[in-house]
Known about the structure:
The chain is mostly beta strands and 124 residues long. It has no helices and eleven strands. The strands form two sheets. Strands 2, 4, 5, 6, 9, 10 and 11 form a seven-stranded mixed beta sheet that branches. Strands 1-3-8-7 form a four-stranded antiparallel beta sheet, with no helix packed on it.
Amino acid sequence: QVQLVESGGGLVQAGGSLRLSCAASGRTFSSYAMGWLRQAPGKEREFVAAISGNGAIAYYTDSVKGRFTISRDNAKNTVYLQMNSLKPEDTAVYYCAASVLSAGSDYVHDYHYWGQGTQVTVSS
């Protein structure tokens, strides 16, 4: 089992940047693909980015390509989401999640362990 704790959310102006972090417990962190997903008010939870267990594969939803970067440090049991050129439509609660699928997934229900979420608010 994996326990996940996100940090780094906050309020930022449009065009600004934030870096989210997710610290994981357990000694098998590298065996999990990790994802970032988000949920805006009144909307369903959606996929943002995922990275494989060894960090070799990373992919993104189209709306964040070129602006967001997912990375991980298996020595620190931590996954990151660097968010640049933020837009008001990026406002949401961002969740870190772990999947037993080797390359992760863009399907929300393929993630088995979840953090509590961190709020990101982008003002116009």
